[in-house]
Amino acid sequence: MPYMKNDTISQSVISGGIEISDAQYQSLLAAKLDGKPVTVREGAPFIYSGEKRTVYRLVDKAVESQEILTEDETPSGWQDEIPTPDPEPITQVSRAQGTAQLKISGYWPTVIALVDAIPDPTTKIIAEQALYAANTWQKNSPTMQLLAGEGGLNLTQQQFDDLFINANQIQL
What we know:
The protein is an alpha+beta fold. It has helices at residues 22-33, 95-105, 108-116, 121-132, 142-148, 157-168, and strands spanning 3-5, 8-10, 18-19, 38-41, 44-47, 52-59, 62-69, 92-94, 136-138. It folds into three domains: 3-47, no CATH class; 51-86, no CATH class; 92-168, no CATH class.
């Protein structure tokens, strides 16, 4: 009587193996000769189709892939669909991009009025320079925070992020 253990088949007893029929032995032998992997699954012989599929995972914003046999379960931490890394946050845009986006969004007149209404002369000069002379607008700068935050445009964090994302997409 033939036996099987893991991917090994034999006409002799295999310690710890399962007993298989002559027909199963012949089928498994033919599969192995065709290059198809065989194994024991849930206590019974199993023949893989030999076909593979690709699984993916995201590691440090890089997509890794590996091929596994179609019948195998997707390994933990892997998935069948190609993952999309989160985009890098936009932390700066050119003044031209920022100005264009503020005008597109309808915020430009309000921003001008906010800067004109700044009571502290030093803060007002800095805000004017940022608005009219700076080459880039830094998202975390005190001026941008002042204009976007409470007492300014009163934007949510998502609205502020979206302004910079949309401004960054403007091609000049």
